[in-house]
Each structure stands twice: as structure tokens, then as C-alpha cells.
Amino acid sequence: MPCICVFAASPGDWQECTGNVSKNPDQSISSCTRIIADTTENEAGRAKAHFNRGLAYYNKRDYDRAVPDFDAAIKLGPGYASAWAYRGAAWKNKGEYDLAIADLTEAIRLNPKYAFAYLMRGNAHYDKFRITRKGDRDLAIADYSEVIKLDPKYLAAYSNRGLVYLSKGDYDRALPDCDKVIELDPKHAEGYRCRGAAYRGKKDFDRAIADFTEAIRLNPAAFVTHASRGGCYYEKGDYDRSIADFNEALRLNPKDFESFNRRGKAYAAKRDYNRAIADYTEAIKLDPKYVDAYNNRGLAHKTLGRKADAIADFRKALSIDPTDKTAARELRSLGG
Q1: HEC states along the chain?
Q2: Model confidence pLDDT, tens digit, residues 207-247
Q3: Which CATH architecture has domain 1-78?
Q4: Is the pTM higher than 0.90?
């Protein structure tokens, strides 16, 4: 009879599967894959291996591969709160905000003291508002406040809550949250980024740029900070520096659809409308629900005399958000 060979995973595989998801995700993926293929492994072990492989893909920003591993972990262990939470986080990063909120809510049901799940659900609520304008910022604030209640030193909760207050124009509530981050950790880049955003909201662009520059010094790999400083340079009319910062943000994260949109605005301000349209189109490709990008592309088409293309973009923006005033106004002006 032919030999049926079973290859058992080694203790070293387990160590690399669970211990390298951040430092060496590729090694983690390989080791977790060997464990998953081990027919002697029990369901709990395979669920853990799927979760850690998904986490490694998540850390590589390969969310399309992360989600199926979290699916498998949940199927093998429906009570696996971390798998629900990280699948929700992956859905959020893919722009699937309702799926994200549902998964994170289940993670919280399974573990009501899961601070990370509250944080990610807050992020999903806020991102849904920022991108589709249909999210509830007050729900985001409530989730961040719950994180702070569970862990008063959770820096991301203060900085994120501060950013939501900023989006509501509530600078008096935002600044204490940003200052709290810096107080807890003066070398934490997010505190300076948050405070920079507060100064930007108060139109104190020089102070904002100083804080963003300090944040970049502390963490040069944070694409969001480069994009934030780029936005300040845009507001000051320094479009070349603005574009340079958005270039760096996109080098660090080529899937940053907001930087494509904002760099497009800088190109449009320089009257380079074809480059602007290319950037808006890339933003839409990365997030087909991005109302602002459709409106900006429509405005660029209008400027170039491409009436039909402009009307199509404004109609699409209204189909996503029927209350959008920019799209409605422009359609009226174009007779569309």
C-alpha cells in the first residue's frame, strides 16, 4: 500500500506563526500555512493559525487575503472575538463600513471590554461619514469615549476623538484630546498630528505645519501626516510643496485614495486639469463611493468644456449622496 505521510508542524512553526506577524509577516505566513496544512492539528489550533496568518496579511495591508483567513478562523471558532474584530478592521480598510461595523459589534458582544474593537468601530463610523457622508460621528465619539473609559492611556482614542471633534468644528474639545496625547507621550507622533489638525481647523497653518513636521520627524513612515501637511501647504497656496507631500504619502501608501483626490485639487489649482482628472479617477477606482472625488472630477471636466463627462460625475455623486449640494448646484448650472 502507498504510504500516507503526515507532516506535523513543529514548535518552531508555532513560534514563528504567532510571534512574527508584525516584524516578519512573510515568515509568519509560511509557518502558519504549514500549521493549517497539518492534518493532526485540532480545530482550535487551525483557527489560531488562520487568525495569525490573516493578521500577517493585515499587517502587509493585503486585506483581500486577510479576510478569508479571518473567515476561516470564525468558522472554526465562532466565539473568536479577535477574528471578528480584525475582519471588521480589514473591512473598514477596504471601505466596507457597514460590514466593518457589524463585525466589530459582534466582537464587542463577545468581549464587552475589548478596547481595540471599540476603537476600530469608532474609526468605521467616522470613515463612513468622511467618505460617504452617511456615517454618525457621535457614534464614533461614543466608541472612542468607551475606549478611554476602559483604558485611560489609550493614545489612539484621544487622538481619534480629537479628530472627530475637529471635523465637527469643535476645536475647544479637540485641543485637550490632542494635548493629552502629547502629555502621555511627548514622543508620540499622533499627538502632534492631532494638534496640527486642530491648528489647521483654526486656520493657523504655520503652527499646524510645525506640528505636522514634528510628527513626521518622529514617524516619517506615517503617510497620513505627510498628507495632512500637504493639505496645509495647499491652503497656503504653496501647491508645489503640497504636491510633494502628497507624492510622499502615496509612495508610502499607494492605496491612499484621499491623497489622490487632494493631490488632484493641487494640480487643478495649478490649472493642470488632465493630471487632476487622472488623480480623481484613481481615487474613485480605489473607493467608488467617494463623493468628493466625483465632484472634483466633474468640476475639472466642466472647466475643460467636457459637459457630458461633468454631468455624469455630478449625477454619480448625487446617486451616492442625494443631499450633496455641490453636485445638485453644478447639475442645475449645466442643465443636467
Answers
A1: CCCCCCCCCCHHHHHHHHHCCCCCHHHHHHHHHHHHHCCCCCHHHHHHHHHHHHHHHHHCCCHHHHHHHHHHHHHHCCCCHHHHHHHHHHHHHCCCHHHHHHHHHHHHHHCCCCHHHHHHHHHHHHHHHHHHCCCCHHHHHHHHHHHHHHCCCCHHHHHHHHHHHHHCCCHHHHHHHHHHHHHHCCCCHHHHHHHHHHHHHCCCHHHHHHHHHHHHHHCCCCHHHHHHHHHHHHHCCCHHHHHHHHHHHHHHCCCCHHHHHHHHHHHHHCCCHHHHHHHHHHHHHHCCCCHHHHHHHHHHHHHCCCHHHHHHHHHHHHHHCCCCHHHHHHHHHHCC
A2: 999 999 999 999 999 999 999 999 999 999 999 999 999 99
A3: Alpha Horseshoe (1.25)
A4: no
